[in-house]
Amino acid sequence: MAFPKIILAAAAATFITAAFAADVPKLDVSSTCRPIVGDVTLQIDSDRCFKSEQAARDELKKEWASFPPANRGLCTQTATMGGMPSYVALITCLEMKRDAANLPASANLRTQPAGLSTKKR
Predict the structure, then answer these.
(1) Which one, 3, 74, 107, 114, has the greatest CB density within 10 A?
(2) What b/e sequence results for 45-80 when a residue is b if at least 16 CB atoms lie within 10 Å of its CB, and e otherwise?
(3) What is the pLDDT of residues 35-60, one digit of tens each?
(4) Does the residue 113 lie in any domain?
């Protein structure tokens, strides 16, 4: 009887995710903007970090509905990985996905570094 429980859990998770996807997620950026104890090589200006995160959240509030739901879900997962959630990472992910989707189909994009060729000489 474990199988039906798995299906119910997956359905509930999908429903919950869909219900919250309509609004900008609430992220706790305190761990992101707090200096790492004992690490003197990476100095963090907490005030500046919090201001950047708030500015990114404000921008997300304006643009959230314009991003496809699938991208919102994927980018939210990406921006919260590793225990350091970030609105800056979230909006960057969403903008990159949008911009990549809007590239012209005729763009001559290289899939390998210049100078390398798969042709045999």
Answers:
(1) 74
(2) eeeebeebbeebbeebeeebeebeeebbbebbebbb
(3) 777 666 777 888 999 999 999 999 99
(4) no
